[in-house]
Amino acid sequence: MSVTRTYFTLNVADMERAIAFYEGVLGPVVRLRGSEWSELKLGEATVALHASGARPRETGLVIEVDDLDAACEAVVRSGGSIANPPQPLPDGTRMADVIDTEGNGFALASPVETSNVTTF
After folding, report:
1. Exposed (0-12), middle (13-18) or buried (19+): which is 26, by Cβ within 10 Å?
2. 44 close to 102: Cβ distance less than 8 angstroms
3. Which tens digit of pLDDT belongs to each residue from 32-62?
4. What is the predicted pLDDT for the residue at 117?
5. pTM score of the predicted model
6. Within 13 Å of residue 113, how many CA atoms lie on the same side as its CB?
7. Most exposed: 5, 16, 18, 41, by fewest CB within 10 Å?
8. What kind and span of H or E run contains 68?
9. What is 7-116's CATH topology?
10. Cβ pair 108, 71 in contact under 8 A
């Protein structure tokens, strides 16, 4: 037995609105588009959007981007909101908590600056 794929699912009420949000924030990331199930390719990961009627939730999803401030601006411009603005973390990462158009909470992060990384 081997793992063939891993994906993370977000519940959405309006599939087209959700897809427009993620494309507005992250660019052309839609791998599969459907009325009940769509998939976003985010780096090595797949995030599935499911029109389930279930309520949104805090997801635990973190998406690392190269420009956190620009990504946060895109969240607002695309209809989402900023729950907690970008903050520095002790490891040098900056992170912001955001909410998509469907009410799902996730985090955006910028990479750790290599000058702050300790190697062993």
Report:
1. buried
2. no
3. 999 999 999 998 899 999 998 788 888 889 9
4. 46
5. 0.86
6. 8
7. 5
8. helix 68-77
9. 2,3-Dihydroxybiphenyl 1,2-Dioxygenase; domain 1 (3.10.180)
10. yes
